[in-house]
Amino acid sequence: MIVEERRMILEKNPHRVPLKPIPFFPNHALTELALALFFIGGIFVLAALSPHGLGAAADPLVTPEHIKPEWYFLWMFEILKLVPSKLAGILIVLAIFVALILVPWLDRQPSRRFADRKVAFAVLAGIIILCAILSYLTIY
Fold it and tell me: Nearest Cα to 82, choosing from 97, 71, 93, 70?
């Protein structure tokens, strides 16, 4: 009797899609929570079984000479090295960002083509070239 009912259900439902939808909460949410806790527990067990040291303690009074920032901060680092006053270097970086923010309001062309927006394109190209040159100077 049960086999016959199952065969009839499978004939009506060949892709084996559940006839009743399974609710997300609590069924699926609890399954995901259990899996997340299992994997987090596994990470904790691995960390407890094979701890890895951090190396020598840092000396806050001595800065190593080989320290370089990430690639996207290289141009800012070079500006701070070139300008004698640190406040002036920070103001130059701030002025570059303000220029990028103000470009849409300074160049009020209705067209969106680069050929029609000469001021915006010139400012953008100038800042990109400046950042590229300063980043190159920092690396080499």
Answer: 93
